[in-house]
């Protein structure tokens, strides 16, 4: 029998023994949740199924389970490990006996509760939230009529009208400006963006700028600007290179 | 024990008994005596006598509704004769039984509560997290403050529901801890034998 392949079916774990060990060592499974007695019982069952006593398996199992138990004990009594280590063996034995007695009593009490629950199984009763308790009536403090009128007047005052201007915001179609610029460039080889659209609103200017980018992408125009915030010059493709030097000079003179 | 007050007809406590009956039928949980006294706006002793009268009227074998003292108060429940019929229509508060781990955890909380999970784990020797969570979900135990100090662990105690489910008037009806067999003499002897070997 191979101990590591022992199949386990515990509350906290289901699978082969060596996987359990791996998980415990990697701290992915809390040993406190593992019922070590369950492992022992499973091993004994498997052992019982065989006719011969497999001493090697028993030895290996003992070593593994002893290691598991030690780990578990350390985990459970972390803070007390030092405290217990200081005790004389006699005292430690007494302390352990005391704890075992405490647990045994609780186990007995659990048994008593189980019996009681079985006896009282036929109890049916209403479970539900109680109806709400009545709220005490709140008495209002006496008030001066004038003062109340004053306060109500404040409340009755018409609030300032809410601005709806943002709702009127309309975005003209980009195509409108695309057409306009094409028409413009069919008459003139270049134009000054700001000069052409100076009279329009911010939103319209923004849309016009989008139209400009659109035309640039289609390679219909070239755009140039001498410096940040300088006027934007727009030219038909082909016109640009020819007149570049001349214009740059002219713009410089203008911005200066 | 035949008290003249329990003679039903024209009992001077009848009116009070009717009031108490009404309060108990509206209540969703056992009503402590003080609350009944306050709500009925009557004398404490008279309320107790009227409750005695009602207990006689609503007792097992005589009525389908039984008045009982449970979880520190007074409450109606169904008579045991009706349990089968009730079971067809309603689920029991603890329909599925409790596991050994849950019972032991419940015992520890009942006897030692308010008690924290680490304390429960210390006594049982295994982590109590899932048992505690299950008992909270069933309404048998509930949180009761935290341990002193920073990040103190949550403490738990049993609920009135626990007493109702187990038919206890109060936690004092649990068997005395000293009466429960905590007898580990055999183990103690073996432990001491080991200790002697270690010292030798």
Q: Number of DSSP strands of chain B?
A: 5
What integer value in Å does the Rg of chain B equal?
23 Å
What do the pLDDT scores of chain B average to?
86
Helix content of chain A: 55-70%
Largest interface: A-B, 46 and 58 residues
- Which sequence of SSEs, written as H and E, runs from N to C of chain B? HHHEEHHEHHEEHH
Strand order of the largest sheet of chain B: 3-5-4
Quote the CATH topology of the largest domain in chain B.
Answer: Arc Repressor Mutant, subunit A
Placed side by side, the strands forming the largest sheet of chain A appear as 3-5-4
Taken as a percent bin, the fraction of beta residues of chain A is 5-15%
Residue windows where pLDDT falls under 50 for at least 5 positions of chain A: 252-256
Mean pLDDT of chain A: 79
Low-confidence stretches of chain B: none
Order of helices and strands of chain A: EEHHHHHHHEHHEEH
The CATH architecture assignment of the largest domain in chain B turns out to be Orthogonal Bundle
List the helices and strands and how they pair.
The complex is a heterodimer of chains A (about 260) and B (about 200).
Chain A: E1 7-9, E2 14-16, H1 17-25, H2 36-48, H3 55-76, H4 78-85, H5 89-119, H6 145-156, H7 174-187, E3 190-192, H8 193-197, H9 202-217, E4 221-225, E5 232-236, H10 239-255
Antiparallel strand pairs in A: 1-2, 3-5, 4-5
Helix pairs in contact in A: 2-3, 7-9
Chain B: H1 14-26, H2 33-40, H3 44-57, E1 65-70, E2 73-78, H4 83-89, H5 100-112, E3 115-116, H6 117-124, H7 129-137, E4 141-146, E5 154-158, H8 160-165, H9 185-199
Antiparallel strand pairs in B: 1-2, 3-5, 4-5
């Amino acid at each position: 029998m191979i101990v590591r392949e022992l199949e386990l079916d515990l509350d906290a774990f289901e699978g082969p023994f060596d996987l359990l060990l791996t998980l415990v060592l990697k701290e992915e499974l809390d040993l406190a949740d593992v019922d070590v007695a369950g492992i022992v019982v499973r091993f004994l069952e498997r052992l019982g199924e065989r006719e011969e006593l497999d001493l090697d398996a028993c030895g290996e199992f003992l070593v593994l389970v002893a290691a598991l138990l030690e780990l578990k004990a350390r985990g459970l009594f972390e803070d007390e490990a030092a405290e217990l280590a200081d005790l004389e063996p006699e005292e430690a034995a007494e302390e352990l006996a005391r704890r075992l007695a405490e647990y045994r009593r609780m186990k007995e009490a659990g048994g008593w509760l189980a019996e009681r629950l079985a006896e009282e199984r036929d109890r049916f009763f209403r479970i539900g939230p109680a109806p709400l308790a009545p709220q005490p009536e709140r008495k209002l403090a006496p008030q001066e009529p004038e003062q109340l009128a004053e306060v109500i007047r404040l409340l009755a005052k018409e609030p300032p009208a809410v601005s709806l201007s943002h709702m009127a915001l309309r975005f003209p179609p980009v195509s409108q400006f695309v057409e306009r610029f094409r028409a413009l460039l069919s008459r003139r080889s270049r134009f000054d963006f700001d000069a052409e659209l100076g009279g329009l609103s911010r939103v319209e200017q923004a849309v016009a700028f989008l139209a400009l980018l659109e035309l640039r992408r289609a390679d219909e125009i070239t755009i140039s600007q001498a410096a940040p915030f300088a006027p934007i010059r727009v030219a038909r493709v082909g016109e640009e290179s020819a007149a570049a030097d001349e214009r740059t000079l002219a713009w410089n003179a203008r911005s200066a | 024990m035949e008290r003249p007050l329990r003679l039903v007809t024209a009992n001077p406590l009848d009116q009070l008994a009717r009031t108490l009956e009404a309060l108990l039928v509206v209540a969703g949980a056992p009503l402590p005596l003080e609350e009944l006294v306050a709500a009925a706006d009557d004398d404490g002793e008279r309320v107790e006598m009227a409750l005695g009268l009602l207990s006689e009227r609503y007792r097992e074998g005589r009525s389908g509704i039984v008045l009982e003292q449970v979880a520190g108060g007074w409450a109606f429940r169904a008579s045991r004769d009706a349990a089968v019929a009730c079971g067809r229509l309603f689920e029991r508060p603890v329909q599925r039984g409790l596991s050994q781990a849950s019972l032991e955890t419940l015992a520890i909380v009942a006897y030692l509560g308010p008690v924290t999970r680490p304390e429960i784990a210390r006594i049982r020797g295994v982590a109590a997290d899932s048992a505690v969570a299950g008992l909270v979900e069933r309404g048998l135990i509930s949180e009761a403050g935290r341990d002193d100090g920073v990040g103190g662990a949550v403490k738990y105690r049993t609920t009135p529901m626990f007493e109702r489910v187990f038919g206890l008037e109060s936690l004092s009806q649990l068997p005395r801890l000293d009466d429960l067999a905590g007898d580990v003499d055999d183990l103690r002897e073996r432990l001491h034998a080991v200790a002697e070997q270690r010292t030798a």
